[in-house]
């Protein structure tokens, strides 16, 4: 697995290249360092926009509609600030770029968020 790390403000963007044998299970990891209301996973095929896969919103899991076969999320302990995406029984079409995105909680003056 190759590891590339790039600093961006208060977050770390870490890129991993994962190789898998077709039919095996793969787990992709996402670590974060800020509080988050929701964690989203997306995948992107070359030349296409990102595709929503699954969301964990305060412990409530929402899948894409229709659900993507073989995709599940593991977010056992938010205090550890870690969430996994599991791809079961990988197939060639699982080859893509995967993104973990979080929506932070509001910690400052939320009134400025609704300014017109």
Q: What is the count of helical runs?
A: 0
Task: Output the helix-strand order.
Answer: EEEEEEEEE
Measured by DSSP, the beta-strand proportion falls in: over 45%
- State mean pLDDT (0 to 100 scale): 77
CATH topology: Immunoglobulin-like
- Decide which structural class fits the backbone: mainly beta
What is the overall silhouette?
globular
Q: What quaternary form is this?
A: single chain
Sheet with the most strands, sense and barrel status: 4 strands, antiparallel
- Assigned CATH architecture: Sandwich
User: Roughly how many Å is the radius of gyration?
Assistant: 16 Å
- Annotated CATH homologous superfamily: Immunoglobulins
Q: How far is it from the N-terminal to the C-terminal residue, by CA?
A: 46 Å
CATH class: Mainly Beta
Share of helix, binned: under 10%
Strand order of the largest sheet: 6-5-4-9
Which spans of ≥5 residues are poorly predicted at pLDDT below 50? 1-11, 109-116
The tally of beta strands, per DSSP, is 9
Q: What would you note in describing this structure?
A:
This protein has 116 residues and is mostly beta strands. The chain contains no helices and nine strands. The protein has one domain (23-106): Immunoglobulins (Immunoglobulin-like). The strands form three sheets. It has a four-stranded antiparallel β-sheet, with no helix packed on it. The chain has a three-stranded antiparallel β-sheet with strand order 3-8-7, with no helix packed on it. Strand 4 (36-44) and strand 5 form a beta hairpin.
